[in-house]
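Hi P.,

Sorry for the delay on this. The queue was packed all week, but I finally got your sequence through. Input first:
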Amino acid sequence: MSHDTNLQPHDIDAEECVLGAAMLGDAYEENYIGALGGLNASDFYRERNGWIWAAIVGIHQRGDKADQVIVGSQLSEQGRLSEIGGPAYLSLLVSRVPTPFLGPQYAERVREMAKRRRQIVDGMKQVQEGYTGTSKPAVKPVYAQPHDPAHLL
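Then the structure:
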């Protein structure tokens, strides 16, 4: 994960490893993609990694196995293969995976980073609403009452 405070939370290594693990693990384990815990393409920080994930899930939903050749073909049909870096990037993803058995851990890390990014966006919206007054608070705030002896009677 990057430690630059100007970047939103992300872990490119985990993203790349979950993609590589998915392309390796799906070849020999039934429902490997399902074991990765319901990642969404929008959970990926790098857009191209989200496109690859969407291709893997689409292939899996058709009942096919998603290895790097099939994923490359799918991305080519979508006109995105060159945008993601071509077959070389898919090969890199597969080569980065120490073992596909850790895929669920990589997926959890990707989900956690996505959750943190969503929290930041939600917080920024609340701050903006606070400055502009464009929304009403869900709960009416309770303000301290001025000290008034008549108030106590």
